Amino acid sequence: MKSLACWTSALLMVGLLSCASTEQARDVKFSGFLGDYSKLQPGGPGEPLFLYINPKANFRAYDKAFVEPATIWRSKNADPSDVSPQDLK
User: Fold this and answer.
1) What is the DSSP letter of 86?
2) How far apart are CA 74 and CA 88, in angstroms?
């Protein structure tokens, strides 16, 4: 029964997120945040431009998911006004 509740919650979350309007970027400029981008692979239609999928991941071992609120990380010398109030909201 616990597994059914977990799957139901996951499907509900995916359903809610899929209602959001999204656009795929036309190009990407790596910021250097990751340091090594060699493991990123080009995404296909409907996917991010680049993505990483761990081939050894065992998702069946998990029974919970934790979704943290979005945060903005900036460099020390970033201009605080470069992000619009709408985006911050």
Assistant:
1) H
2) 13
- Chain CA centroid to CA 25, Å: 14
CB atoms within 10 A of CB 50: 14
CA distance 44 to 50: 9
For residue 5, give both structure tokens.
Answer: 């509740």
Q: Which pLDDT score is estimated for 68?
A: 93
| Element spanning 50, H or E | strand 50-51
pLDDT of residue 58: 93
Residues in the chain with pLDDT values less than 50? none
Name residue 58's amino acid: N
